[in-house]
Amino acid sequence: MKFKPGQRVMYKNYESQVVFCYENYKDNKNAYTVKFKRGEMELHRLCYEDELEEHAQIDLWDS
């Protein structure tokens, strides 16, 4: 399992949060339920591990 529930990730350019993990969901791939906001709506999606990226927070004052 690459991501843990509560961890912030990027899903299709949306800052998201992992809600739940399904190990070996289909074809030995891990799947995740993520939640993210699109406008005023909060959406939940089921996606595979390869659709997610680590959330990179850049601190401009760290030089």
Give a verbal description of the structure.
With 63 residues, this protein is an all-beta fold. It has no helices and five strands. The chain has strands at residues 8-11, 14-26, 29-38, 41-48, 52-54. Strands 4-3-2-1-5 form a five-stranded antiparallel beta sheet, with no helix packed on it. β1 and β2 (14-26) form a beta hairpin. The chain is globular, with a radius of gyration of 13 Å.
Keywords:
63 residues, mainly beta, 5 strands, 0% helix
Class by alpha and beta content: mainly beta
Number of strands: 5
* Strands side by side in the biggest sheet: 4-3-2-1-5
Radius of gyration of CA atoms, rounded to a whole number:
13 Å
Average pLDDT level: 88
Q: Figure out the total of helices.
A: 0
Gap from first CA to last CA:
33 Å
**What percentage of residues falls in helices of 4 or more residues?**
under 10%
Low-pLDDT stretches:
none
Name the beta content range.
over 45%
3D shape: globular
Largest sheet: 5 strands, antiparallel
- What's the order of the H and E elements? EEEEE
In short:
The chain is built from no helices and 5 strands. By secondary structure, it is mainly beta.
Q: Which helices and strands occur, and which strands form pairs?
A:
Blueprint: E1 8-11, E2 14-26, E3 29-38, E4 41-48, E5 52-54
Antiparallel strand pairs: 1-2, 1-5, 2-3, 3-4
